[in-house]
Amino acid sequence: MLTELLKLSLMLTELLKLSLIDTELLKLSLIDTELLKLSLMLTELLKLSLIDTELLKLSLMLTELLKLSLIVTELLQLSLIDTTLLNL
After folding, report:
1. Could you tell me the end-to-end alpha-carbon distance of the chain, in angstroms, rounded to an integer?
2. In whole angstroms, what separates CA 1 from the centre of its chain?
3. Distance separating alpha carbons of residues 15 and 20, to the nearest angstrom
4. Which member of 3, 13, 15, 82 has the lowest number of beta carbons within 10 Å of its beta carbon?
5. What is the reported pTM?
C-alpha cells in the first residue's frame, strides 16, 4: 500500500512539473502574441512611412511646378514690357 502511495505521489509530482511547464509555455505563447501585435504595428508604421515618402515626392513636384509658374510669370512680365516698348 505504501509503495502504491509513493508511486501515486511521484506521478502527482510529475504531473505538477508538467503543469508548470505548460504554464511557462502559455506565458511564452502570450509573449509571442504580443510580439506579433508589435510586428503588425511596425508593418502599419512602415506603410505610413511609405505614404509619407510619396507625399514628400508630391510636395517636391509641387515645388517644381511653382518654380515653373514663377518662370512663366516672369516671361509674361517680360512679354508685357516688350509689348509696351513695341507700342512706343
Report:
1. 130
2. 65
3. 9
4. 3
5. 0.63
